[in-house]
Amino acid sequence: MYVWPCAVVLAQYLWFHRGSLPGKAVLEIGAGVSLPGIVAAKCGAEVTLSDSSELPHCLAICRESCQMNNLPQVHVVGLTWGHVSRDLLALPPQDIILASDVFFEPEGKPFFLLGSQFNHRYNGIKSVLRSLFFPDFEDILTTVYFLMQKNPKVKLWSTYQVRSADWSLEALLYKWDMKCVHIPLESFGADKEDIAESALPGRHTVEMLVISFAKDNLNYT
């Protein structure tokens, strides 16, 4: 229930590309207070906000954000990553998926480490942590992959806060036939500590990624 530094950076990316947003179908996953999704809706996109169907208070926050910003047309649905639900099946094809700091472990340690360090730290308790806190990294990509089947040209616009250099998306992206393009923050005016007169992202290191099917050869700027 907090505006994370990553949300402000993603919102800035949306604002930078606001001219391309009117009429686009945009889904924000793990939306929470929904700053990126709200900005997209204000820029004319047809937005759906989503958060875990198992966390009704998060969905209530999404709806409250819509009410506060006079956006009654924005839909709010419960989507649990890695689960095929009626709401997921009912979603129309999307053009853009927004994900702000969804690759996150609540204790500040990399939940999705690869290799021996992962096995040493988390083997045996991974399933417990997953059930108590956040879905597995692959659960997120599974849901994204399902949405890509509806529209192979859909793009995942994602920001994440660098908390450790020990984890990587590379293996899972390869497994799910996806590619990742890094977007320099300076290319859209996000390489500063105070975006849009806010105090965020502060001194946090935030990265911007665009993820798509590997067979898509479109360029990004």
UniProtKB/TrEMBL annotation:
Keywords recorded for this protein, A-Z: Methyltransferase, S-adenosyl-L-methionine, Transferase
TM annotation in the entry: none
Entry annotated with the keyword Transferase: yes
Gene3D superfamilies the record matches: Vaccinia Virus protein VP39
Record SUPFAM superfamilies: S-adenosyl-L-methionine-dependent methyltransferases
Domain of life where this protein originates: Eukaryota
Keyword Transmembrane helix among UniProt keywords: no
InterPro entries: Methyltransf_16, SAM-dependent_MTases_sf
Pfam families documented for this protein: Methyltransf_16
Gene Ontology BP term (one): positive regulation of transcription by RNA polymerase II
CC annotations in GO: cytoplasm; female pronucleus; male pronucleus; protein-containing complex
A Gene Ontology molecular function term of the record: DNA-binding transcription factor binding
Family: Belongs to the methyltransferase superfamily. METTL23 family.
Protein name: Methyltransferase 23, arginine
The species this protein was found in: Bos mutus grunniens (Wild yak)
Phylogenetic placement of the source organism: Eukaryota, Metazoa, Chordata, Craniata, Vertebrata
Gene: METTL23
